[in-house]
Amino acid sequence: MRGHASAVKLLEWLASVLAHPLEEIAAAAAVSVSDILRDSDILSKAGHSNMRALYKQRVIMQLLPVVLASYQDGKWQGQCAAAVAHVLRNAPKGALRDQVSSLLPLLGAAMTQENAEAAAAGAETLRELVEDHSKAIGQHLSELIPALLHLALKGTISVCLVTLLRTIINSLQTARISALNCLSEFTKLPFHLLFPHRNSVIAQLAQALDDRKRPVRRAAVVCRGKWYMLSSAPK
Q1: Cα dihedral value 143, 149, 151, 157, nearest 10
Q2: Residue ranges of the chain whose pLDDT lies below 50
Q3: Which is deepest, 95, 161, 176, 200, by most CB within 10 Å?
Q4: Rg of the Cα trace of the chain?
């Protein structure tokens, strides 16, 4: 945050932890990326942190190439995708404008992860990008829509035979709602891009209408209704 000379080494170490054999530790490393970049009461001037101008941009520019290189080499792809989702979600608006198109496939990968927090971060980040990056998103709909549907319907088809911890259930619920909200936001994209996916999305969302959680059912009703209302009228 203050531009220390050791920052590069520390960020490289953080990126290397994404390859840790214990999934919990690797997932914690991906979340740590978010902790560094997001606004908080602790890492702030109010918390007496030494914050230099443009520190978020420096962190992103130092960390992202390492993570992307590892992802493209086929190493620890799941956690790399999760880390990128956290970076995009907390990046200053416009900081990654020229790279969004190349990063979108990683958001899709993040939404297929077992880690519910990473999946929710990917969906929320994608929803926030729709307004400013509709053209780039339109080029990746064939990858992003199936990933969102996979997340939205997670846990709705069969009832788990074991009792899940309440925190896990809540995380999955949040992730499913995030995916449904993102699919709702997609309806703002040009009709000709959405039309090839319309019938498939409507059919698959029918499963979410029977979800065990009322907030998920409510989000599914709103989302499916918006896809039903799509027309060829120019926007």
Answers
A1: -140
A2: 1, 156-168, 232-235
A3: 176
A4: 19
What is the per-residue pLDDT for 74? 64
Q: Given its phi and psi angles, is residue 76 left (phi above 0), alpha (psi -120 to 50 degrees) or beta? A: left
Residue 55 identity (one-letter amino acid): Y
Q: Give the integer Cα–Cα distance in Å for 103 and 18.
A: 18
Round to the nearest angstrom and report the end-to-end CA distance of the chain. Answer: 43
The C-alpha atoms of residue 222 and residue 93 are separated, in whole angstroms, by 28
Determine the distance from the C-alpha atom of residue 64 to the mean position of all C-alpha atoms in its chain, rounded to a whole number. 15
Rounded Cα distance, 99 and 51, in Å: 25
Please list, residue by residue across 110-126, b when 16 or more beta carbons sit within 10 angstroms of its beta carbon and e when fewer do.
bbbbebbbbbbbbbbbb
Contacts of 3 (CB under 8 A, 6+ apart): 52, 55, 58
User: How much is the pLDDT for 208?
Assistant: 92
Q: What is the pLDDT of residue 54?
A: 65
Q: Which residue has the tokens 């035979």?
A: 161
CB contact at 8 A, 96 and 65: no
Output the CA torsion sign for 218, 224, 229, 235.
Answer: positive
Q: How far apart are the C-alpha atoms of 26 and 79, rounded to whole Å?
A: 7
Instruction: State both tokens at 62.
Output: 């130092």
Cα–Cα–Cα angle for 217, 86, 28, nearest 5°?
A: 95
The helix/strand/coil state of 211 is: coil
